[in-house]
Amino acid sequence: MPEDPHHRSRGSDHPVGMDVARRVPPADGGGDDDDAAAIGLCWGQPKIPDPFVWPLADALASSETELDAPVVDVGAAMRGGGDGDGMRRAAEQVAAACASHGLFQVTGHGLDPALARAALDGAAAFFRLPLAAKQRARRAPGDVTGYAAAHVDRFTANLPWKETLSFGHRDHWAAGAHVVVDYFTSVLGSDFKPLGVVYQDYCEAMKQVSLAIMEVIGVSLGVGRSCYRDFFADGCSIMRCNYYPRCPEPERALGTGPHCDPSALTLLLQDGAVDGLQVLVDGEWRPVRPRPGALVVNIGDTFTALSNGRYRSCLHRAVVHRERERRSLAFFLCPREDRVVRPPPRLLATARGQEERRRRYPDFTWADMARFTQRHYRADARTLDALARWLGAASPTCDAATSASQSQDKAQETV
């Protein structure tokens, strides 16, 4: 539901602020005509409409310098029970990347190249469907799953130049069914069952890779291999297929605006040699070039909270091209909806006789974060701080919530 501009955070007298209020969807959630207009007026036209034009501060020119992101061999890390030199090397690489910009790439992940190709080809086939067919999976207001064109169902300005298809994933034992297959057949029809099977298999492979990466991250933070792996073992993750069409004015548009992912971890498979992902480092937007066989991994806000701010959520965007279209697959690792997100005690403990380390963020659940970012706030670089205010957590024990409230009007519109 849309946010009331006079809304106040729960349990607090502190207003959430207009940076939150102006990010919510229209009251009616948009309509089929909105999506049709987004595609009909833009894709393939010589000019882009004003709602797709981004502020110069967000659409700054890209740097020629590629992001210096380590390539972590997760297979070597897990070899021999995960206690050898491979794990130590991987943990050092992850620690360095996550303390600076929050992104690294992984190889040795075990993803079947044929499955990766089938998933990318399946996304290409879906986005080539007539609009009426794609609209059968149209995203409902306030929901994270479904088809969306340029997010016109949620926003009226700074629209991203893309189409997406999102759906949820759970392990069989947790859901009791092939949830991805069921989604495709129930929403799109029985003809889409083979594609549902492809994405069921792809999501299960991504979940296993994610858990292995969580073991490396646990070692890198000194909390052990099982700490974060167990935390996410019964999670409810999200899969998103992205399509970025050719754009007649790429210097004025963005495929995705500057933001940090609300989830814990993102695993991105880029299609071919077409780049688009960029990370902000030292005031420059540095490209992340596709590497054959590698997956891009970035830290999200939920894990930043789980690490008590030690690992940075990756601030990134996606650019578009005049002559080339681009596709990618993003797997967002998330906790179970009702699981409380708080740092493990070892990250808060200090030497004997000293005070406990100050908590950077309040407790919240993934359900809280999902509801906040889908119904109340457009995810950006300040999402965690805004969530803290929304939860009524601006208190002496949460540094970030108080400092962010002093600069909330400077938050940028992002996706």
Automatic annotation (TrEMBL):
Gene3D superfamilies in alphabetical order: B-lactam Antibiotic, Isopenicillin N Synthase, Chain (2.60.120.330)
Q: Does the keyword Glycoprotein apply?
A: no
Describe the location of the Fe2OG dioxygenase domain by residue ranges.
232-335
Domain of life according to the entry? Eukaryota
* Catalytic activity, reaction form: gibberellin A53 + 2 2-oxoglutarate + 3 O2 + H(+) = gibberellin A20 + 2 succinate + 3 CO2 + 2 H2O; gibberellin A12 + 2 2-oxoglutarate + 3 O2 + H(+) = gibberellin A9 + 2 succinate + 3 CO2 + 2 H2O
Q: Pfam families under this entry? A: 2OG-FeII_Oxy (PF03171), DIOX_N (PF14226)
Q: Which cofactor does it need?
A: L-ascorbate
UniProt GO molecular function: metal ion binding; oxidoreductase activity
Ranges for region Disordered: 1-36
Ordered alphabetically, the record's keywords are: Iron, Metal-binding, Oxidoreductase
The answer to keyword RNA-binding applying to this record is no
Q: Where is the composition biased (Basic and acidic residues)?
A: 1-13
Q: Which InterPro entries match?
A: DIOX_N (IPR026992), IPNS-like_FE2OG_OXY (IPR044861), IPNS-like_sf (IPR027443), Iron_ascorbate_oxido_reductase (IPR050231), Oxoglu/Fe-dep_dioxygenase_dom (IPR005123)
Q: A GO biological process this protein is involved in?
A: gibberellin metabolic process
Belongs to which family?
A: Belongs to the iron/ascorbate-dependent oxidoreductase family.
**By its UniProt entry, which PANTHER family does this protein fall under?**
2-OXOGLUTARATE (2OG) AND FE(II)-DEPENDENT OXYGENASE SUPERFAMILY PROTEIN-RELATED
Protein name per the record:
Fe2OG dioxygenase domain-containing protein
